[in-house]
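Table 4 source record.
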Amino acid sequence: MINKKVIIGLSGGVDSSVAAYLLQKQGYDVEALFMINWKDSSVTLSGDCSWEEDIIIAKLVAKKLRIPLHVVDSSKEYMAKVVDYMFLEYQKGRTPNPDVLCNRDIKFDVFIDKAREIRADYFATGHYCRKEEIQKDGKIIYRLLAGSDPNKDQSYFLCQLSQEQIKDALFPVGYLLKPEVRKIAKELDMASAYKKDSQGICFVGKVDLPTFLQQKLQPKKGDIIEIPKKNVPDEIALAEKSGSEEEKLKIMTAERQYQPEDGIIVGQHNGAHYFTIGQRKGLDVGGTPEPLFVIATNIEKNIIYVGHGKNHPGLFRKGLYIKHNNIHWIRPDLELKPGKSNRYSVRIRYRQELQDATIYRLEDGLYIVFDKLQRGITSGQFAAWYKDDELLGSGAIE
């Protein structure tokens, strides 16, 4: 018998429900915590479950497992640490990832504090990832590994966690496949067994983004300018003509900048801050031979630049840059020092297959150069790098 107390974050979903059961089966003294983080249902699309529905399922699961369920209202912290940050980033023309922030600042911060108040030895979540403990130079180091299910691996969402946050964390479903988790829930006749996976913004749900952002960011008419393929700069060719290696890196990883004279006006939009790189919906420009995609935005001039077709060169880049103060290492002992470079596997969004790349560390930050051109590199999103199946670090893209 383990005889250790663990608090499981019970969301009302199938993953955390099965995680609670597995912890019980392993001999832990299990208690559950349900966090209310978002109360405004006016911005969610119809059909999405609200927290009121989630808490009912969580209560039913807790009752079936005969575990105490604590409920805490963390909506103020969520607004301050996640939502306000989202608005600020969109206002700057960047596209934040609320799920990464939610895990770093809510699930593995506010949640940990609440778990400690209940005097738990560990806290657990239903994330599909794994944790290992190793000894190095007489010190315990925690490794954060990809989940066993390649279709559900959620390690990317935890890319901003620290050693201290991982230390007492447990991930019971990380070694299972999603169908196995569903099967366990059905066999136990859990209320969450047939509940669909959550989508959209963490704790908020699926939203109409412009409507959501209009709470603080006002609509503002501006031009949609189409950039012909021939007017997209070839950074690789430009880099080859440059002098120093540092200059080559900066050319290949810089965000593209366009001018109005580089293209032609093809329509109007309601605010450049509502759009992101690679976006297709919401442009409302008809009569084009191929769909239009956003390839760049200029918030100061309130201009959206678009290109024809999903293979427009403006959608693809060779690299990206992360500022020095945005670099985060889950494994500080493996930190890349200035002047050094190394090969890693990198992803720039959830569910993207890992991409081979070389990361160069200079004094001002990290320069990531991919072996293959990458579609839709977006400022504000997180690039996360791995060695094999271990997540080593991440950073917000400039």
